[in-house]
Design a protein that fits this description.
Blueprint lengths: L9 H5 L8 E2 L3 E9 L3 E8 L5 E8 H4 L4 H13 L9 E6 L3 E7 L6 H5 L6 H20 L2 E2 L8 E3 L5 E3 L6 E2 L31 H18 L9 H10 L10 H10 L10 H6 L1 H4 L30 H6 L7 H4 L9 E6 L3 H14 L3 E4 L3 E5 L5 E9 L5 E6 L5 H12 L15
Antiparallel strand pairs: 1-2, 2-3, 3-4, 4-6, 5-6, 7-10, 8-9, 11-15, 12-13, 13-14, 14-15
Helix pairs in contact: 5-6
Length: 434
């Protein structure tokens, strides 16, 4: 029976769900902290009756109250309850108190695949073994009408026997979210793994974007680094949009050809799941179809209410922001800018500058045009802000607003309070309902 490392103060940190014997609802003995994020903590735990190790994800309701994250959690519960596959992390049950939600999930001892590949690239045979399991899991999800939309090595766990487990379905979508054009429309995914069609606002096929992400994962496993990477996020997106990557010389010709089909920027000609399973490189090593478990009936009695599958805007999730302030997503350091912001717009650069100029003139702020945008100054000549506009895709531009150190008072007074409120209609807004 595995030992449990008790955490000091566990009962108070997990609230009234913990009994005097330090067991959650009298069922799970809580142990060491495995990880934590902005809204949740994950603990190792043990079933007091069977001794089985589990992971307990604890979500603080107060921290997500009034946000779209609640819908995200409801959807994750709904999706995970319908999936039963040896290469997908199992959700055992969901518990709740007045202030907390508890996901009791399968404990995968080996940790993230990312931690293993970070030590060095894998031989093709080992990469193929993991890729077989990944495709088995993803193909199963697609057959159940589930699209993961955030596949990456950090969301792939490995057990002590080398078995791959797909986790984190928080950004997943289901067929119910497909619009009348047969496509999904939510901006979604982790930047380096996102498919090029997601960078546009024309909609995308959930299965095809998952296949693209699988291609990026396979490249990372066999090369040891990302196919599309750049310290500047916009530059990286441009590489993805154009499909600009090179295979290292140590990759076999069969693998290079296979990757070129997985990372085809045209979703209409990108390789399909059936074609993947017939590919010569993929079929080496004896790929075997997994016999799937029967899909279980979904439990409608979720702890936080309705089983609605309204989608979360992934840009909001990644940046933990809303409206104009998307700095958490676009800042290369991953940290919000002290004085400045970035946002997406589907308007032309000329239209954006025209709108800024009108707002500036109304506030008696001088506007000077520069090569990449404009500079705003007070009547006294004191700097207010610089605005730069760069094209991201054929449909979208990135607008970056910058302030100088020591000029935050002017920036706050003129840009934040007077000019920015007049520009809200310029901010790109996804189509609703997905």
């Amino acid at each position: 029976m595995p030992e449990i490392e008790h955490v000091t103060g566990t009962a108070s940190s997990l609230d009234a769900g913990i009994s005097p014997g330090n067991a959650l609802f009298g069922k799970y003995e809580i142990g060491r902290l495995l990880g934590c994020g902005a809204f949740a903590k994950v603990y190792h735990a043990r079933d007091v009756l069977t001794g089985q190790s589990v992971a307990v994800k604890v979500i603080n309701k107060k921290k997500i109250a009034g946000s779209t994250l609640m819908s995200n959690i409801k959807r994750e519960i709904t999706i995970m309850r319908r999936l039963r596959h040896p290469n997908i992390v199992r959700l055992y049950e969901v518990l709740a108190t007045r202030t907390k939600i508890y996901f009791v999930i399968e404990f995968v001892k080996g940790g993230e695949l990312f931690a293993r590949v970070a030590k060095g690239r894998f031989p093709e045979d080992l990469s193929r073994k993991y890729f077989h399991q990944l495709i088995s899991a993803v193909g199963y999800c697609h057959s159940r009408g589930v699209y993961h939309r955030d596949l990456k090595p950090e969301n792939l766990l490995v057990d002590e026997n080398g078995g791959l487990k797909v986790s984190d379905f928080g950004l997943s979508a289901v067929k119910d979210q497909v619009q009348t054009d047969g496509l999904l429309h939510t901006l979604c995914g982790t930047p380096a793994y996102v498919a090029p069609e997601i960078l546009t606002k024309k909609g995308y096929d959930g299965a095809k974007v998952d296949i693209w992400s699988c291609g990026v994962i396979l490249y990372v496993l066999t090369a040891g680094y990302l196919p599309f990477n750049d310290p500047n996020l916009m530059a990286m997106y441009k590489k993805i949009y154009k499909g600009e990557f090179r295979c290292p010389k140590w990759m076999s010709s069969d693998l290079r050809r296979f990757l070129s089909r997985l990372l085809d920027t045209n979703p209409n000609t990108r390789i399909t799941m059936d074609e993947i399973c017939r590919d010569p490189w993929f079929r080496k090593g004896g790929y075997k179809e997994v016999k799937f478990h029967e899909e279980l009936k979904e439990d409608e009695d979720h702890p936080d209410g309705s089983t609605s599958t309204n989608s979360l805007n992934a840009f909001d999730l990644i940046s933990f922001s809303s409206g104009l302030d998307l700095s958490g997503l676009f800042d290369d350091s991953g940290n919000p800018m002290e004085d400045g912001e970035r946002f997406l717009s589907s308007e032309s650069a000329d239209k954006i500058i025209e709108k800024i100029q009108a707002a500036a003139l109304a506030e008696n702020v001088t506007l000077k045009k520069k090569k990449l945008g404009v500079v705003l100054e007070e009547p006294s000549g004191k700097f207010v802000a610089a605005v730069e506009i760069s094209r991201l895709t054929e449909e979208l531009v990135v607008v970056e607003v910058k302030s100088k150190a020591g000029e935050s008072a002017s920036y706050c007074e003129f840009w934040k309070k007077k000019i920015r409120p007049q520009l809200r209609d310029l901010v790109y807004k996804q189509q609703q309902g997905n």
